[in-house]
Amino acid sequence: MNTLYPSSKITPRIITSGSRHSILLSDVIFKVRSEEPIEFIDLTDQINRHLLEHGIRNGTATVFSRHTTAAIKINEAEELLLEDFKQMLRRLCPVEHDYHHNDMSRRKPPIAPDERPNAHSHCMHLLLSTSETIPVVESRLALGTWQRIFMVELDGPREREVHLRCHSYVSSGFELEIPANGNGHGSRSSGSTEPYSNSAK
Amino acid sequence: MNTLYPSSKITPRIITSGSRHSILLSDVIFKVRSEEPIEFIDLTDQINRHLLEHGIRNGTATVFSRHTTAAIKINEAEELLLEDFKQMLRRLCPVEHDYHHNDMSRRKPPIAPDERPNAHSHCMHLLLSTSETIPVVESRLALGTWQRIFMVELDGPREREVHLRCHSYVSSGFELEIPANGNGHGSRSSGSTEPYSNSAK
Amino acid sequence: MNTLYPSSKITPRIITSGSRHSILLSDVIFKVRSEEPIEFIDLTDQINRHLLEHGIRNGTATVFSRHTTAAIKINEAEELLLEDFKQMLRRLCPVEHDYHHNDMSRRKPPIAPDERPNAHSHCMHLLLSTSETIPVVESRLALGTWQRIFMVELDGPREREVHLRCHSYVSSGFELEIPANGNGHGSRSSGSTEPYSNSAK
Ligand SMILES: [Zn+2]
Ligand SMILES: [Zn+2]
Ligand SMILES: [Zn+2]
User: What class has domain A20-97+117-170?
Assistant: First the structure.
């Protein structure tokens, strides 16, 4: 028993618990074209559309960037906040810093034909994530009200690839016990429903 | 063959390898009440209790925060260290910084009814994680001796929701080949057993 | 519909979509010996070898560090860049900082017998990741051309354990629709094939 935090602060609410028998595996690569050196590109609607169109009803989605200077992160799609994020990344990993990786005279092959002095981009990436794994409920990413999933370009503009791998679980007697339209909170995405009750950021 | 690091430094030890046929999918939402602006709330015991009570024996647990200013991270539950973490987060993402997101006059709707000037909280979140995925072995999170899983409040006090999604795999002939009580190391959690041999942080 | 980014920038390409019936669960612990205080140890080849030798053909791999001062991250195995990463980590989490965790007189038990003043190592870890989850395609980690998976030692030298948990999906009629040798890009790893078309970092 951990004494730092009383367990009374943490209350479980069971949503579903049952056995599933058949797995549907689904892979898709999203081609993403960035236009700025640092850019947050919101993939949420495209992923939800894919889940719905391909019958991926309940399962798990892993959104995986195939690049070392483009990351995947979940946060809020608020325009001013995204500017703050860019400023923070530039402050923590300044472009003008004296990086070893940018000294092409010392680099050993292979070097990418389109390589730029981009050590700051790799450094930003190290502080972010290559992938996010998200539960899927009723053919939607089970995100909170303010959560959106982004590909974060750190060395743009470039053409990028994001791998979406979904596992879904199907069985004859499947019935989720959560309400499909659990609350009336506004959401940034049209048609979004929130099966959970808390809209705090 | 990567020449930077000799493969002799990396030794595999096979634990188990076999086929499984039936999947148990389980979802639970933990309601978590924070009391401080920045607070590390240890969820490990509650999650382990849930795994045990619901027969989730071997599989994978994804612990997912439904918020853009509350993160999930694994580290050590050492009281002084958690203070160091808070100081580092405040140093990297200062509250008093001049953030665009906090200028409500320029914000476009929707804005959460309980929105506060919290750009620093979102920035801290960007440096942390929305979720952690952890192997489950014998109805316990297969954590190392010093690892504990935290919800990290970054804009408290608030009521939060943490989604625990578990996949477990069951078959008639299931038998894990790891010892249930592999070592005698002390642990912060009562009843914890460590099926692996290394207690280094 | 998110108005910040037009959906025309994001193009999906379906790779595969079909039902799978049987799951192969596989666990292995890699013992990793580090030699430096901060060190990036490339695990990619050993993991790929394991996948191939154990018939883990299509599925998902979770690479999980069992330590609070050793992380798992994906980035590029470029020697000079790894030096830049170390410098950034030391700059963001300086060793000489005055940390509470390093004041042994105030620490409560249990304390690891081999504990060192390592608050900076824990702080670096908080900014990195405990695990990475990667799709497996045709018995290989489905990484981009420049991506390699590292255990990042932050408090070495030490003996470490990295847990590799693989889920793989098998069925009689399995046939992936992606080319096995999709492009001709150079790669750091001998025998590596890239089933996708984009080699941008
Ligand atoms: Zn580069
Ligand atoms: Zn906000
Ligand atoms: Zn320590």
Answer: mainly beta
